[in-house]
Amino acid sequence: MARYRGPVCRICRREGEKLYLKGERCYTDKCLIERRPYAPGEHGQSRRGKQSEYGLQLREKQKVRKIYGMLEKQYHRYFEIAENMPGIAGENFLSLLERRLDNVVYRLGFATSRNEARQFVLHGHIMVNGRKVNIPSYQVDVEDLISVNESSRKSNRFKDVFEYNADITVPEWLSVDLEKAEGKVLALPTRDDIDYPVQEHLIVEFYSR
Questions:
Q1: Are 184 and 35 in contact (CB under 8 A)?
Q2: Most buried residue, 4, 159, 184, 199, by most Cβ within 10 Å?
């Protein structure tokens, strides 16, 4: 599947806020948006005019899509599923995105970024209920046990990740034991579990045009 393979710091600068796409680097003074807090490109520092309603909706849709590292077709499909579920479409949409296996691996502290979590899943390092799952979009459910493959957890990279995330605080819908390299889904994520600024109603309005 084709994916954006350019500099991810450019994405944060385009959206005008830190999206924490590079893991550890985002928390250091090497973070590019700290040094260049303006849009990329030749006219990035030019003053922008007031955004239209459509522009605001588009930017919010793009921001959340980039946070979860998804292509438009798959992203839109999640919205269509959320729209047909009982409840509020925007909240359903965010819940489905949070339940992706690559996101859960990141949330549990088994990776320092969602991109790294996706790679760990694709390369067979992650287990769900004792079975290897290499599909990043796999939807976890309540009572699922997510763990790092026993042989993989001995690698230097995972040792570094666990040390870096030793004091991580996971969302209330998850529990984790980094010493055992395993976590559990306690409940389905709710709107209150989304810890980054997002206006999901703008995404709903964008796709409902």
A1: no
A2: 184
